[in-house]
Write a structure and sequence with these properties.
The complex is a heterodimer of chains A (about 100) and B (about 600). Chain A is built from three helices and no strands. Chain A is mostly helical and about 100 residues long. Chain A starts with a helix and ends in a 13-residue tail after the last helix. In chain B, strands 1-2 form a two-stranded antiparallel sheet. The radius of gyration of chain B is 30 Å and the shape is elongated. Classes of the chains: A mainly alpha (about 100), B mainly alpha (about 600).
Chain lengths: ~100, ~600
Amino acid sequence: MNLQACLLLSSGLFCVGLYGLLTRRNAIGILLSIEVMANAANLNFVAFSRYSGAGYGQVFALFVLALTVAEVAVGLALVMALFRSHRDALVELASAFRH
Amino acid sequence: MMSTASWALMALFAPAAAALILAVVAPLRRRLIFSVGISLLGVITSLASAIMVVVGYAANLVPVELTVPWLTSAGRPFLDAGVHIDGISAPMLVVVAFVALCVQIFSIGYLDDEKAPSLGRYFAYQSLFLFSMQLLVLAPNLMQLFFGWEMVGATSYLLIGYWYAKPSAARAAVKAFWITKLADMGLLMGLILLVQNTGGFSWTAHLEPGIATAITLLLFVAVMGKSAQFPLHIWLPDAMEGPTPVSALLHAATMVAAGVFLVVRADPLFAQAPDTRMFMAYLGAGSALFAGLLALVQTDLKRVLAYSTCSQLGYMLAGIGAGSATAGFFHLTTHAFFKALLFLAAGAIIHAVGSNELSRMGGLAKKMPMTAFVFILGSLSLAGVPGLAGFFSKDLILETVVEQQLWLPAVALMLTAFLTALYMGRVILLAFFGPRVSEGHPHDPHFAMALPLLLLAIPSLAVGYFGHWIAGLSGNEYSFHITTTGIVASSLGLAGFGFSWVIWRKHPAEEPAPMRALAAFAKRAWVDNAYRFIYRRGLLLVASWAAWVDRYIVDALINACGALFIGGAGRARRIQTGNVRDYLFAVSLGALCLTAWGLWR
């Protein structure tokens, strides 16, 4: 398995995530899609690190993991709040700030 | 031993302190004894200090100046404030303080039926006026003079409107304020021109001929307003609505003379503008004649004196216009005394009779012998009867005008001398002689009103003999000698009295025909109507054009800008849908575009 295959895999993952992000109505689905995209980027870090021989990329991948955990914690709290007030988690319900 | 400058500061600030205390400490103002006491203390201190200033100055005749830098411009001193003592300001200081003292003492008697708090207000105004006038007189530059000038205008407004509940008084106060303010714009513009061309406010600056004419003409506009010269004289007769002592102090002796004082003060500037001087001579003489004619047909005692003041101020300006500031200043000094005397005596009559109308008086000489005596003395002095104060100063003006061969003004002034005697003779005959008209028991005033009359009678009699001394203070020569001009003028004056004796000796029920025609002419109030016409047809029309431009062009532009932004923003905010997925789509699209741009580059 060479670098190119890894990059192809990660861009595939990214596109899957992006598709999910644009098509999902449920907030949880959107959060999951974002996770997929973040991990696609992570995969790039790991792959470049592996093939260039330097270890920095893997350290960055760990950082990104920690970051996404925090992000998911905030995101899920928002989803809970949305669900409480609307009995549903569709993102278009959270539109109180439109013009 | 205090220096001359310190005495001048004392003369300046004693009335200011009195005014400040009376204005700020209300309990003192409400008690008659305190308000009168503090005010009199201020004016007496001012007078005593002013006398010390003259004594100190006369000892060596060197002008003294004490100034502090006040405003700076670009790091350089731009404007000084302080006192300047020379042969003009020193005697003027005494004249102002002396007349103010007489007037304040007189006011105690004249306004005895006023309530104490209201009198406290009156004396606070009086002190404030004295301070403003001394500020003007002592000014070391024209800008400080301008400050004093505006302050006397404001106090004049306050004092004319002292009986503010009376609509005519309130209207007269506003009219006086507006007309003089209109004229003051001339002074302000003149000063701006002066500072642009010389960088300072000095009255000794050297100017190019054209600029000098422009500046002095602008200054003269202000003089015309303050000194009530045609056609800006219309406020002065109306200002007689104020209490009579106020008329005596402000509108006869001192404030209206401030205009003449400015011309005397700025004489070095006026000397560089012969055209302005010529204009001044002609306008002064014309005003003197015109106001003299109007004085002849007034039925109100104070209005006769008011027009007479216009007329005499015209005399002074004609004299200065003919080139002799000394003559104008000399007449200013003598006029201050005898006109204040006349006004205060008129006040005593009005107080006794209870009316301003000449028709309500008559036969008062028997009832009020002392008042009659000083009034006649003042009238003779005003008419220039030989030996009295007015004779010497008037003679000097006429001689100057004749010497300069200004024949038209000379003739006008000669006629005015005749008219002056005629109208004063009329007033004397109608008020003091003939049958009694009014009921009641008019009598000579008591001490507080009699003392100022006697105090003022002395200089009205004698100040003419000090002409050489007054001229000497500012380094000029003056000695009296009998000339043809003097003989002609004084015989014209005596003829005027003779004529008045012939016409009004028997108190005719109806004035002679030329007088009636003149009265009808005066009643038409041509000048007032001209102002009204200019205001309605000119100023309001232009103002309505300006309002149209302002509303439909200036405002429209501003409103169009506003409408553009409000409309545009209303459309632009539709893209804020509030839907998270729309934003996500926008973010993705943006990222895609950035990627495409990166690849393409």
